[in-house]
Amino acid sequence: MPEREYAGPGSAPPGGPDAIVAEGLTRSFGARRALAGIDLRAPAGSVLGLLGPNGAGKTTTVRILTTLLRPDGGRASVAGHDVADEPEAVRERIGLSGQFAAVDERLTARENLYLVARLYGMSRASARRRAEDLLDRFALSDAADRPSGGFSGGMRRRLDLAGALTARPAVVFLDEPTTGLDPRGRADTWQAVRDLVADGTTVLLTTQYLEEADQLADSIAVIDHGRVIARGTAGELKEAVGGDRITLRPTVPGTAGAIAGVLAALGPYQPETDRRTGQVSVATDHGASALQRALSALEAANLGVRDVSLAPPTLDDVFLALTGRSREPGSSVEDLGTRGRDPAEHHERERGEQDAAGTRRRAGRRKGAHAWRR
Ligand SMILES: Nc1ncnc2c1ncn2[C@@H]1O[C@H](COP(=O)(O)OP(=O)(O)O)[C@@H](O)[C@H]1O
Ligand SMILES: [Mg+2]
Fold it and tell me: Does the keyword Ribosomal protein apply (predicted)?
């Protein structure tokens, strides 16, 4: 195979054409509708975060955009080429790092990367050089000659990511790059993504973590049941949800409503009650002092609280605020509760995408914040 010329990701003009465009993507598996019409747009050189719980349709979207799966409807283009009409051209310009690291465990890290480089048509010398560069960049040089089967989860992910970057793709897809990693592995992966972006690569990253999207993404599409239910920057998302959140668990089940009433009276934010967990949560701009005020008011009202937390909003909070319901039971490893479903919830789900103004209206959010619809 002749050695190819790699234009390099830096060749995309800043603010130039969209590197990723998806319009009305639909896809079903048998009777199960995985995608119900997904629209996405990522300018060249930006990071688009696809944020959603398990089963939302993230991997299906990535598989369509990387030409591994055909959509039932809609269209998409990546790096200027239509995924259905020109799959080869798309494949030449992308890298994919999947939810489960694809490394050959019998080979060393160096051999893995050399093999990938050769598969991309590089000469022996170029492949060796590229493998060295990537080992260095992903802090794998010390482990380069060990079989990758003995690597930690974080090292495997780094090796998989390095493999995805071998041919200097213009657009990189990272499907849940940090799920299952320890904090150290997560921090390393985040740094690798930042380095990529500094090179001008366009990145689509899927995640279940609002914080991860916050750290890495220029813009975020929140997806649920195969639809985009909100989009904006992490700041806009958080603003729509409110600042930090106070979450309380009543001592006596059934007093959540009364607790929510007391918190509502303190204002300015409207508390939300999660019927599944029995917890009451409310946004606050004043951190610990607001927490103190809330606890005093509840004590005065003789309402006991079993435990309480003050924390930045999570994906769960975003979902609760956007859809008026918590995430599906069993939709994540830490979410193993069970919950009944009622028609009202179904109705909420069918309403589809919302803008932040709608979210704030419903939840009584602060005034003056700008809308964050595309
Ligand atoms: N190959 C498949 N066969 C049947 N159902 C599938 C298949 N792939 C995905 N699904 C279903 O489609 C929905 C979306 O899945 P997926 O895109 O993997 O979600 P996510 O990556 O956000 O967790 C889920 O309900 C899932 O069970
Ligand atoms: Mg997935």
Answer: no
Task: Render pLDDT for 37-66 as a digit per residue (tens, 0 to 9).
Answer: 999 999 999 999 999 989 999 999 999 999
Give the strand pairing for 32-43 and 81-82.
unpaired
Q: From the CA of 58, how far away is ligand 2's center (Å)?
A: 5
Distance 36 CA to ligand 1 centre (A): 12
What is the rounded average pLDDT of the residues 171-183? 88
18-103+169-241+313-329+339-368 falls under which CATH superfamily? Answer: P-loop containing nucleotide triphosphate hydrolases (3.40.50.300)
DSSP category for residue 148: G
Provide mean pLDDT across the span 9-32: 79
User: Domain extents for the chain?
Assistant: 18-103+169-241+313-329+339-368, 105-150, 244-311
What CA–CA distance (Å, rounded) separates 239 from 372?
10
- What letter would DSSP give residue 101? -
Which ligand has the minimum distance to the alpha carbon of residue 332? 1
Ligand 1 surroundings by CB, under 6 angstroms: 29, 32, 34, 52, 54-60
Q: Which fold has domain 244-311?
A: Alpha-Beta Plaits (3.30.70)
Q: Which residue has the least CA distance to atom 17 on ligand 1?
A: 57
pLDDT of residue 154: 80
